[in-house]
Amino acid sequence: MGKEKSQARELAKLLYLDTNQSLTIREIAERARVRPNTVSLWIKKYRWDKLRKSLLTTRKKIISDLYDQLEALNNKIKSRENKTPDPKEANTIAVLTSSIRKLETETSAGQIYEVMTDFLEFLKQDHWDLYRELLPHADAYITHKLNE
């Protein structure tokens, strides 16, 4: 892929992942100066949709929802005469607490993307050559993390 096409793809990726703008495929294509079909192909090929979803769904929100579910289940158990969870409830509690623990201790692809993007933006200001050299490696690493 030529340098211009690579830069167009990177711009399209940034525009697609920027959910604050809510751009259409056509608008992204116009700004990146490629055809809409090309942007659609890149979205599918490089799995930008999966990355976008991971950026939209924050870890903090998911953990909060899991704690709410756990609290609701515990309140249900406390409200009845037999305050011991049945096997199904005990299993649900175990799954919820395991999910919470995992989310609180593991790094998500979205977090990796955010840190990597911030770092690359920092490099771009004063170390353009290093930025250009690291960019494909950063993309490959993020893609690898998404496929785990």
What this model shows, in words?
- 80% of the residues lie in helices and 0% in strands.
- The longest helix is centred in the middle third of the chain and has 21 residues, at 59-79.
- It is elongated, with a radius of gyration of 21 Å.
- Helix 2 crosses helix 3 (36-45), helix 4 (48-56) packs across helix 7 (109-126) and helix 5 runs antiparallel to helix 6.
- By secondary structure, it is an all-alpha fold.
- It has eight helices and no strands.
- The mean pLDDT is 86.
- The chain has helices at residues 3-17, 25-32, 36-45, 48-56, 59-79, 87-105, 109-126, 128-146.
- Among the domains are: 1-46; 59-105.
Q: Strands, helices and their partners?
A:
Blueprint: H1 3-17, H2 25-32, H3 36-45, H4 48-56, H5 59-79, H6 87-105, H7 109-126, H8 128-146
Helix pairs in contact: 1-2, 2-3, 4-7, 5-6, 7-8
Taking pLDDT < 50 over at least 5 consecutive residues as the criterion, the unreliable ranges are: none
Strand content: under 5%
Using only C-alpha atoms, the radius of gyration works out to: 21 Å
Shape: elongated
- Summed up, the helix count is 8
Largest sheet, if any? none
SSE succession: HHHHHHHH
Distance between the termini: 26 Å
Strand element count: 0
Helix content: over 70%
**Average residue pLDDT:** 86
Which structural category do the helix and sheet elements fall into? mainly alpha
